[in-house]
Amino acid sequence: MNDTNATAPLRLGTRRSKLAMAQSGMVAESVRRLTGRPVELVEITTYGDVSREALAQIGGTGVFVSALRDALLAGEIDFAVHSLKDLPTSQPDDLALAAIPLREDPRDVLVARDGLTFETLPEGSRIGTGSPRRMAQLNAWARALGRRIETVPIRGNIDTRVGFVTNGDLDAVVLAAAGLNRIGRIGEATQFLSPDTVLPAPGQGALAIECAVTNAPLAATLAELDDPHTRLAVTAERSLLAALEAGCSAPVGALADFRGGEGAVTEMRLRGVVGTTDGSTLVQLSTTGPVPASHQDALALGRALAAEMLDKGAAGLMGERAL
Ligand SMILES: NCc1[nH]cc(CCC(=O)O)c1CC(=O)O
User: What's the CA-to-centroid distance between 203 and ligand 1, angstroms?
Assistant: First the structure.
């Protein structure tokens, strides 16, 4: 590792996409401020970047992360930044999630032509998303409004997906607010989708900073960038996902948020949804209780809500692999 020389640059492994570079750049700046050491970006190509298959069909989780993890374990880089929602729920023993910084907006947004919203899009509008979770909830929403929409499977980076609207191929696309914001295009969102209607992916909007467990001094330093409430929230969300035995491409949404009085946070609410991609069936549940006192308590909360969802028929919906 690099810590033998306290002035040597720290090597931050990153994917080449605009989003990954933006996220890595933000974290690099924080780590520079924290350590006083230079941080060097090392570009790495992952399978998720080169594959042309629909993400839901590649089958495995973590297509964006394995090459970064290989580089960490090979000692080619010192740390890596991931979108937490792209990380598999099981953590390898030899890698540490050293920090989960304060999460930004977890919501999905609509980017529609002509400033339209979900409610003002004309009948039969074509809405692009490659995510079974988004399809299920958009179709359920349309059914509830007595409206007809068509969800169209797309993939590609954020610029490509927004491009389907600007070039006139689609009426709208749905994206994560956080990603759009990080690449400087949040101004093009025409509607922020309330989690009451569309729950985001578990961990959406949060970053994960990972390093090798053997690099204990670096892990301890990076831990200063951790936000404990964000970590509790995403731990519960990901525990729910794991307990439903669902991968990152499954039609599962989850969001934990905090409530309290007089500035003090006292309660955490966890909401979860699973559905069929046609939106004909959604199992959506919520639980609220004291802020989990530990990582173990957050895991237990996610498992408990998942068990309730399975009781209500979620198991039958998990088998479905979208498109
Ligand atoms: N699926 C890819 C992906 N992974 C993370 C983000 C956005 C950033 C985040 O959620 O932190 C996106 C783009 C999107 O879903 O629109």
Answer: 10
Which atom in ligand 1 lies closest to the alpha carbon of residue 248? 1
Question: What is the domain range of residue 259?
Answer: 233-318
Whether 199 is in a domain gets the answer: no
Q: Is 70 inside any structural domain?
A: yes
Strand 108-112, strand 10-14: pairing: unpaired
Residue 272 and residue 155 share a domain? no
| One-letter amino acid for residue 157 of the chain | N
**Token pair for 129:** 């998303």
**Could you report the per-residue pLDDT of 96-147, keeping only the tens digit for each?**
999 999 999 999 999 999 999 999 999 999 999 999 999 999 999 999 999 9
- Quick check: CB of 85 below 6 Å from ligand 1? yes
Q: What ipTM was assigned to the predicted interfaces of this complex?
A: 0.95
| Per-residue pLDDT tens over the stretch 175-192 | 999 999 999 999 999 999
Q: Is 86 a catalytic residue?
A: yes
- 136 and 185 share one domain: yes
43 alpha-carbon distance from chain centroid: 21
One-letter identity of residue 257? D
> Ligand 1 pocket, 83 CB below 6 A?
yes
Instruction: Indicate the pTM of the whole model.
Output: 0.92
Report the share of the chain in percent with pLDDT over 90: 83
Q: Is residue 211 part of a domain?
A: yes
Instruction: Tell me, in angstroms, the distance from the centre of ligand 1 to residue 317's CA.
Output: 23
Give dist(CA 39, CA 45) in Å, integer.
19
The protein residue whose alpha carbon is closest to atom 8 in ligand 1 is 179
